[in-house]
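Troubleshooting log. The previous structure file for this entry was overwritten by mistake, so regenerating from the original sequence record. Sequence copied from the archived sheet and checked twice against the printout by T.R.
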Amino acid sequence: ELKRWRSLRRANMLPLVPQPLVTPQTPAQAGTVVFAPISFALAPLQAQLQATDAVLHKATDRHPCATNDDALTIATRDTYTIGARGDLPAACQRSLPRPVPLLDPWPNVQRVSFRSRMLMLTAKACAMATGCHAAVPDWSGPLTTPEQVVDACNQLGFPILLKADEACGTPRSHDMCAVSDASAVVDALLSVPLPCIAMRLVNHGEVFFKCYCIDARKDGEHDGGGDDDDLWCHASTLPSLPDAASLFRNAGRACVPFHALKSMPVAQAPPHNLPPPPADLLRTIAGHIARAFGLRWFGFDVISNPKGGVYVIDVNYLPSFGNAEGA
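Regenerated output below.
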């Protein structure tokens, strides 16, 4: 999408002119790297990709569908090739002489497409990060009926945050609602589509920490080996929801619907200077998320756990990197 390209451009990422290729392993320039846009509206994809070494995508912005005779189609778990007359990920009908690596593979990216699946994998990653005191807030889902939502909220305890289970690719993916008591659950479902997930709303100091990660380690290094320089992780402090009492008092109602990207109510005077959790802790969590999801370009959101440690509340693929200094 154009807006995402503009965001990446502001972060000085993906420049459309040749850039020196310099890595920690090759401090001297080792050639150049060029980022070139690919479009179904231009020449056939086969012609566009003849000289391409890898494809970076954000297929989760829209449910992918080809608009002409060519479509990216799955060849193996880790590569895509060019097929004809098929929607992603249709069976490949014809291919280039060589597969084109996709960053990241579509089956791996799908693991963040639904919040219920994402939270299960995130909980697994947090459990693997021993000593980090990282966890996922109590949650339940996917919930497909109003009765299931009511039961789940009562079991979890209020306040609750309801979120659409489908995390990306639809107009309602970012519809959410904070709920203070059982009497407001049915009204909240007017604002949040089913299926959804229910998560305990944790008071977390009115800020959250958005972590941007690029994992350049080799596949065999995901178990904890590899050079730390090859796992880049940067965290930014951003304003978040007010504490629950202030949120519902200011709204004057027991349910507060909002769009997470456009209309999220934020604290009036959050502590913007609150430093993120220790870099080593975030790097450890990032490494386990990369392994659990099989992603290399990703982000995750962290909030403080009032009982100590951190909660990981979201994982997404190829974030904007707009607040990532040094990306």
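DSSP finds eight helices and 16 strands in the chain. Archived copy saved in two places this time.
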